[in-house]
Structure formats: structure tokens, C-alpha cells
Write the C-alpha cells for this entry.
Amino acid sequence: MEFRDAWAIASKDLRIELRSRILTNQIAPYTLLILVLFGFALDADTQTLRDTGPGLFWVAVLLIALLAIQRAVKIEDDDAAKERMLLTPVHSSSVFLGKAIALFIQLFVLEILLFFVMLALFDLSVEDPLLICVSAVLATIGVASSGTLYGVIAAGVGVRETLLPILLLPVLAPIAIGATRTFGDAFGRVDADGWAWFGLLSVFAVVYTVLGMLAYGQLMEDA
Amino acid sequence: MNDVIDLQEAVVTLGQFPALTGVTLKVSQGEIVTVCGPNGAGKSTLLRLCAGLLPLREGSAHILGEDLQKNRRIIRQDVGLLGHRSGLYDDLTVEENVAFWGQMVRAESNEINEAIKLLGLDGRLRKVLVRQLSAGQRRRTSLAGLVVQRPLLWLLDEPHAALDSDGRDLVDGLIHEAAASGATIVLASHAPKDISSPSGRFVTLAGGRVTNDINNDGSGDGVS
């Protein structure tokens, strides 16, 4: 595995996303709409919004992650680039890492945007910024790693768009729970030990990154 | 000469469909072989098998001296495949696409520039997004990626498709140049006369089997 290859693949994916503007013109507005709609649905009851804010934030992140993962798979499938990649000496773990890094960066940028919109809309204040930062990084690594892995699994099936959420959302449930608890603690909204949940996020991120690096090659073959 | 391709009664199935039903074929180093046949004869499947992209169901296959069933990944590193789809990214420019694939095969930047020039993609086309190219220009861009790779075995599926006469001449020149430098070329074509090589050989596939195998001078065996 060479990190140079992984970075080249990540740069390529990011350049494609910047140029296609799907992230900025479609996924980002969709993200904001989700939060605003949650606000309407809860009838602008700020107390309820504050209490449920962390959970709503991570549900929104998982929904946009599904779109970003579908995009990441599509750009490799559209013109058989994935097959061409198999004919290069690049190790499959580098391909996995490159795709996951690009996905991580896209999701993290969207999360920052979503976070500040949530603070404004839901009138939340942060009590533990460090916990927010590190748990967001780890949860996003977990989402990007597992999403990249399950994206290539779903790529081999004709019904990718509908299959991916069914496969992936149950897998992401521990991240949704753990990240919601850490954010809830960091916002001072729940009586939970956020740093204990941070441990769960760490394990998830490490397990799926290692698993992805090991299994991605075989899954690319079968896709 | 060494056999770069050595297939013995090779059987490949696509799902339940037997795409190759027992192909026996040997291709030596430096040969230019044109595989022809009607639609569905198994030409593309044969190329993809030789590229290590399809599993062998029955028979034996050795590519570049390696057992295809055991060492598919090793074989792939020395094989270049130009398929029906070009393997390009629509939202990258011609230069970015060739440079990316060059980077993936450890090519130097001067090799990447040379390939772009060789395929007539320098100048105005260099900075154009692939999604804005014509089919022929896409084909040239894809070929530039292949030239950068410098594979030992070139597998070209309808390499002249969508190309104008200059483009076709360019591809023919590339094929002969690659063969002269020791590479082996197998191309699938509906119009085998497009390639005129003194050392050319024409293999006809029908129903997933080799039905004819003749040299350009008319010698060789018909296979039933």
C-alpha cells in the first residue's frame, strides 16, 4: 500500500466533485433543507429542538452520506474506470483509502456547514468543543470507511441505489447512537458520559478502516 | 518465441451463458492478432479473459507465462485493455485523465506529455473536459492512457471504433510500433482489413469457439 496512490485517488475524487458541483449545488442545499424541515416538524419548539438537535444532526449526516457514497461509486462505474483500476499495479487498500479520504473530506465540510446552521436554528451552545471536534472526526471516519466498503458491495448489484441504504444504515446505527450521545453531552443536553461513547466511535472507525483495507480488493473483483 | 497467450479449451460463462465454449489459442510475443467474428461470438469475452478480468470456468490459460487461475492480479499489471467503455472520468480534462492513469502505472510526467502529443491531444484539447469530447477524441484519450502504461500485452476491443481516417492510421501506427518493441497485440474487430500487417494473423470466433486461424499471407489452419 502506498499513501501516494491513495492521495492521488482522493485528489481525483475531490476534483471531480468540485467540478461537478453536485456537493455544493445539490447535496449541501439538501442538507440545509433537512434541518429546516426538522425545525418545522417540531413546530419551532426550541426546547425540543435543543434536546433532539444532536440526533437530528446525525440523522441528517447519515442521509447525506448515502448520497455522497452513491456518487463515489457512480464515478467509478460510469465509464468502467473501476475495471481499468484493476489493470494497474495500485494496491486495493490504496484505492479504498483514497476513496474513503475523499468521502471523509466531503462529509466533514458538509458537517461543519450543518453544525453552524444547527447552532443558529436550534439555539444551542457548546459546552465541550473538544469532544464535539474529536467525536465528529471519528464518527466521520467510521461513516466514510464503512460507506466506501458497502458502496463497492452494492456496486456489484443492479439495484445499487435502493440496496445501499438497506445494507448500510443498520451498520451505521452504532455511529448514530454514539455520536448523538457525545454531541448531547458536549451540548450539555443529556446526562451521558460522552467520552465513553467516544471510545465506541474510535473502535468503529478503526475496525471499518482496517476491514476495508483488507476486504476492498476482493469486493472490487466481485463487483 | 515465447507464448504470451496459451489457452487450452478455455470455457468462460457469463452468468449461466457460455460465452467461450472451449477456445484453444496460442499467441507468440510480438504478434499482431486480429480476432474477428459476428456479434456475440465471444471476442470481447476473450479479451477480458486474457486481461484477467473474468474467471476461467474450465480448461487452462496461461498469459505472459502466468497461470490465469492462480495469478490473475500479477498478469493484469502487464496487460492493457481498451474496451468498449473508455475508463475515463467525464469531469476531468484530457490531461488530468491521462496524468491520473499515468500516475497509477508509475509513469513519469514526460511520458504522460509524450503520450498526449502522440495521440494528437495537445493544444486546445488538452484542457477540455472529457464529457465535452467527441467519441473519437474519447477513444484517443483512452489510448493515451494505454500508451503511458506500456503494457506487454495490448488487448484492443474495436480500437478503430469512432475514429476518423487519421485516427485509424494513428492507431495502426501505434500497434505496429508496440509490436516492433516486443509487445503483443490482440485486437477484436468487425472489419479486420483495417489492420494490414505483414505478420498479421486473423482468428475467427463463432459461438464461443475458434473456427478459423489464418495468417495474412493465407497460410494457417482452418479450425472446425
About this structure: The mean pLDDT of chain B is 89. Chain B has six helices and eleven strands.
